[in-house]
Amino acid sequence: LLAGPDGRPLTGRSAVVTAGPTFEPIDPVRGLTNRSSGKQGYAIAAALAELGAKVTLVSGPVALSVPAGVERVWVETAREMQAAVEAALPADVAVMSAAVADWRVDGVASGKIKKAPGGPPSLALIENPDILAAVSAPGPKRPGLVIGFAAETADLEANARAKLSRKGCDWIVGNDVSGEVFGADANAVTLFTRDGGAEAWPRQSKAEVARKLAVRIADHIG
Ligand code: CTP
Ligand code: CA
């Protein structure tokens, strides 16, 4: 680990981190969202900042305060998240930990939809942009290191490896969400790398997972 001028390995480096869910409106009072407390992503933003990085944290709606030394950009929808991530580029590293809603409602109602005797409304869904895949695409603004997450309830390794190649990112943090993960303070993850590497980290606090990942990032790009 090379130390920067102030002794911190990521001084002079920049990072963009996504965290939390996105919220896709149905009408002014309802929406579609994903389960995510944002804790793991916020902890990663904090850990990168502690190592000296300039961190932009693009956050969906969560009940967490901004970590010290981190700039937070608050978003609701996947498309807002994508725009905020693009505005934060170029960056040396991107960590996409957000639980992005895969679909949004086509034709959001401008007024509250009322219950009617005819039964529930049907929702037409359209696919949201894949922010991780877009950031991973080759180009002058591609960060040198792009890290995605894969939250899976089964076949973690196969799903994580498939995402690694489909999205074109460099590392995937695989997360087994069949147990107690959502909202919890601890997490068990496996780090999958493009070169075929897989490293399982024992269940530990989300803060510890974040510090470990930040040190790995510093080793790689610092
Ligand atoms: N991701 C993203 N934009 C999306 C969907 C996902 O940036 N529209 C990112 C997530 O932040 C995460 C990674 O892609 O880092 C994997 O997300 P996941 O939901 O597991 O992958 P999907 O491709 O959406 O596959 P599925 O939900 O069908 O498992
Ligand atoms: Ca998804």
From TrEMBL:
CTP binds at D102, K112, P129, D130, I131, L132, F149, K163, K167. One of its GO terms (cellular component) is phosphopantothenoylcysteine decarboxylase complex. It catalyses: N-[(R)-4-phosphopantothenoyl]-L-cysteine + H(+) = (R)-4'-phosphopantetheine + CO2; (R)-4'-phosphopantothenate + L-cysteine + CTP = N-[(R)-4-phosphopantothenoyl]-L-cysteine + CMP + diphosphate + H(+). Its cofactor is Mg(2+); FMN. Residues 10-219 form the DNA/pantothenate metabolism flavoprotein C-terminal domain. GO terms for molecular function: FMN binding; metal ion binding; phosphopantothenate--cysteine ligase activity; phosphopantothenoylcysteine decarboxylase activity. Its EC number is 4.1.1.36, 6.3.2.5. Binds 1 FMN per subunit. Residues 15-222 are annotated as: Phosphopantothenate--cysteine ligase. Keywords: Decarboxylase, Flavoprotein, FMN, Ligase, Lyase, Magnesium, Metal-binding, Multifunctional enzyme. It comes from the Bacteria. GO terms for biological process: coenzyme A biosynthetic process; pantothenate catabolic process. Pathway: Cofactor biosynthesis; coenzyme A biosynthesis; CoA from (R)-pantothenate: step 3/5; Cofactor biosynthesis; coenzyme A biosynthesis; CoA from (R)-pantothenate: step 2/5. In the C-terminal section; belongs to the PPC synthetase family. In the N-terminal section; belongs to the HFCD (homo-oligomeric flavin containing Cys decarboxylase) superfamily. Catalyzes two sequential steps in the biosynthesis of coenzyme A. In the first step cysteine is conjugated to 4'-phosphopantothenate to form 4-phosphopantothenoylcysteine. In the second step the latter compound is decarboxylated to form 4'-phosphopantotheine. Catalyzes two steps in the biosynthesis of coenzyme A. In the first step cysteine is conjugated to 4'-phosphopantothenate to form 4-phosphopantothenoylcysteine, in the latter compound is decarboxylated to form 4'-phosphopantotheine. This is Coenzyme A biosynthesis bifunctional protein CoaBC. It comes from Brevundimonas viscosa. The gene is coaBC. The chain holds residues 186 to 407 of 407 of the full protein.
